[in-house]
Structures are given as structure tokens and as C-alpha cells.
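Exercise 7.
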Amino acid sequence: MDKKIKIWLMRQAGRYLPEYQEIRKKEKDFMKLCFNPKLACNISLQPIQRFNFDFIILFSDILVIPYALGQNVQFKERVGPVLGELEYNKIKVDLTQNMEKLAAVFETIKLIKKQVKEKDLIGFCGGPFTVLNYMIEQGTSKTHDKIMNHIKKQAEKSLQLIEIITEVSIEYLKKQIDSGVDFVKVFDSWAGLLEGDDYKKFVTEPNKKIAQEIKKYSPKTKQIFFPRGSNENYLTFIKEVKPDVIALDEKFPEGVFSYAKKHNITLQGNLPPSLLIEGGIKLREGIKNILNTFQGNKHIFNLSHGVLPQTPIENVEILVEEIKKYNEA
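Solution. The predicted structure, written as C-alpha cells, is:
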């Protein structure tokens, strides 16, 4: 990577864009949208056409893995993902069949690469614990009681499920690489729920396995990992998983800077999405503060989580303009 600060945003293709909303008016079934290569390609490229970000991220969802394993997955308006009851005896691990169910995603990747060759494309999957969380909770949760009880009271079964999710996720990323992605990212959005031995078994070890298997399969493919909410565990995660890029939220130990610099790891982050909504002087100051804080490291500018639906377009334009000014200076 050169010294120019590159930029892309988590959820850069999505609900804050009017052109995305137009598509959603016609296609109300979100899973059908994810599996429509032409539309998914179109959506993936919308933020590139509007803002000229440095990276394209595949438009899809982390919950295609439960779907591939045979669990029912729907998205309901104003509710979010709703998953069917998890029937253990019906979880089907047949990598050929699992990947056939996701064939449309690989077609989307090929279409994107055919249309835009000069920008790197990021493929992704969910972190195994985060995917397990959704599978057990059967959707989003504020308390996460079901998943926390499951890993305590059914530890063996939980670890078996993590192994299955990890195996299918590795195969899924390999197929994305075969189809043309340049980077892969693993979103472990609920990593911060766990501590100690649970963090090791359900977060560090599965992510490490993914990293190692993908590195063996395609050494040139760069890997981004995002163990959101890990706080002090960020450093442990980086040392164990050895990512090419570590995505950071707002809280992480100071030692990440020196460790990343020493081991040639790029940092990604970490503007709060709320500042992108607020805009104005606070946004500009927040951007400059991050650029100054990260300037001793290789840095990809991003948010500390995804773009929120109520984000004004003009604030994203301000962000891109500030990064451009910084690079020119």
C-alpha cells in the first residue's frame, strides 16, 4: 500500500443512498436482492459511482451462511433478520451443496470485476461466533441471553456449530477468491460479548483458522478482520490471527499502534457513524483527529461500524473531500 490514505465505508452500499432505496421499492425481499447478481452488482457499485471510494465491497449479507446450512432466513421491515428455529439434525454440511446455494453471490463478484477492474473488491463473511449468535437468537438481540446460555449450558454443541460455521465460511471465502475478490473481510460484530476462555474458543481460534486456511489457499489475497467490541482483547486477537488489516472500533489498547507498525499490519477505522450523521465542524475535527492519530501507521480510513440509514449524503461528501485534501497536502 502507498502512503495515500485510502477510504471506504462499512455499509457504504445501502439504505442512506436514494438510488438503493429506488431498487428496494421494487425488490422488497432482501434475500432475493442478495441473490440477484445484476441488482447486487448495481448496488455494490452505487457508492463508487457517487463517491469514488477506493474499494468496492460486495453487496450481500453475513446471514447467507445460515441459509446455506438450511436455516430459514428472512428480513422483515423495521425488525431486521428473522431466522427459523435451529434444528440441529437438519443442519446440512455438504460443501458442494452449501456453495451451490450461494452460487449467485459468486456470479455477482464476477459481474463487478467485469465492470470495474481498476479498484480492489472486498468479499466477506461473518465471524463464526457472530453467525452462531444470529442462528441461536433467531435474529437480532439486545440481551443475547439465548447465545450466552447456549455456550454455557451446551458448550460442546456450541463448539461443534462453530466448527461447522468455520468450515463453511472458509469454503465460501475460497469461492469468492476464485470469483475475483482482492480482499476478504471477516465481520465478527459480536466478539465483544465474550471474555477469557470463551473469547479464545469462540472468537480467536475460529478466526485464526479462517486466516490460516485462506493464507494457505491464496497468499496474495489480503485479509481484514473486525472483532468489534474486543476492547483490550484487540491486541491478543491481532497477535493470534495475524491479519493483514485490522478494523478498529472506538476502543482498543494503545499498544495496537506499535504492534501493527512493527508487524506491517494496516489499521482500518475508526470514525463514529454518529459523527457522520452530525456533520459540520465536529465531523471535520473528528476526521482530522483520526488522520493525525493514525499517521504513524498504514491506515485505511473507515468508520468504527457501518453507515447508518439516516446519514446525510452531503456529510459523506465532506468526508471524502477531507481525505482528498489530506492526501494532496
